[in-house]
Design brief:
The chain is an alpha+beta fold. 38% of the residues lie in helices and 31% in strands.
Length: 139
């Protein structure tokens, strides 16, 4: 409930009367909140809303993917893993695939430098891959 009280201050002959208004809100628990407390709470709420809206929780940064980018990276990782598994030269090797913002990183162990080069070639052939980082080690 919102209440308003008006106070008339006494006026002299030359000065018009001054009206001052006090606004206050009665909360459900019977607590009365005056204008000062109302403004403080309003600023606190506005600050929290601005902080939440301004935080990069859903937006991507240079070190963090947005939700959409994360999903896209997961799909791309699956496509690269499938392509590597379907290659007869690479299917038995332990190659880990990670993707961040369409850049694929291959790590793990391969039997030869040729197998590592083939894995990079297969990963680059997948649609959507911007670049491939080779962090594989030869056994």
């Amino acid at each position: 409930m919102v209440f308003m009280t008006l106070h008339w201050k006494g006026a002299r002959k030359c000065i018009p009367p001054v009206i001052s208004a006090k606004f206050f809100i009665m909360l459900s628990g019977g607590e009365i909140m005056d204008k000062t407390n109302l403004i403080k709470r309003l600023f606190a709420v506005l600050f929290l809303v601005g902080w939440i809206a301004g935080s990069p929780g859903c937006a991507g940064t240079s070190t963090r993917e947005s939700v959409g980018e994360y999903i896209d990276s997961s799909v791309l990782t699956t496509k690269v893993k499938t392509a590597i598994f379907n290659d007869p030269m690479l299917k038995v090797l332990q190659i880990d695939v990670e993707t961040f913002k369409d850049v694929v990183q291959l790590s793990g162990f391969v039997d030869s430098p040729e197998a590592a080069a083939r894995a990079v070639e297969v990963a680059r052939s997948v649609e959507g891959v911007k670049a491939v980082k080779n962090k594989m080690s030869v056994k």
